[in-house]
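Our preliminary data section would be incomplete without showing what the modeling component actually yields. Below, a chain of 257 amino acids is followed by its predicted structure, encoded as tokens that our downstream tools consume directly.
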Amino acid sequence: MTGKVYLVGSGPGDPELLTLKAKRLLENADVVLHDKLPGPELLASIPAEKREDVGKRAGGEWTPQEYTNRRLVELAEAGRTVVRLKGGDPFVFGRGGEEAEHLADHGIEFEYVPGITSAIAGPGVAGIPVTHRDHASSVSFVTGHEDPTKDESAIDWNALAKTGGTLVVLMGVGKLPMYTDELLSAGMSPETPVALIERATWPDQRLALGTLASIVDVRDAEGIEPPAITVIGEVAGTRKRIAAFLRNGTQSKATEE
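Predicted structure:
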């Protein structure tokens, strides 16, 4: 009998933000294929004998997506119940759509289990709402890590600069100089507030604040590294008003310009 695959979102990393359904599926799974983004506490709670790491390998190499796709099919065809555990939500820059297509092409039954996307939760736990009646009536989510095989970027930074509202960039710390320059060249104000949230909801969460003109220097000075979320827009400046009263499960180290 063929098994089943569950494409499960873990949320941003705090184990208490895992959905009840995701928790039940993890407990009952035969195998859990995971990347690094679910967070260290959550991964440690899964028995080692049923965890398979398909994220970063030793030496900094990424597990090829082709291997992950093939492994999902192999396990399901062997009758196993498989959880493919992803950070945030599987269908928000998590390649869940590609894996769903691959499973369907091979006749494997699967189920999508939503997770809280870090694009909203990450800024939120740092005290930054992605929308606000006074500052942002729209929000745009962008990946900072496009397919490297593309001939050119599919992201129109010029259009995003003119859209207004909030711009949230996931996986974009490394390319921060590129897209901040693009936005500045498109006419976005250099004084636009920007926040970088590193390891949102993890025990070692950090926050750095600056402006569109200064945020690259802030990133370098503070040593902000992936995984991190970039929030660009007036909402990034609202944190100062509420920071003293914000309490979350993790303590944020904030560097404010």
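The chain has a mean pLDDT of 91. The longest strand covers residues 4-9. Preliminary results of this kind motivate Aim 1 of the renewal.
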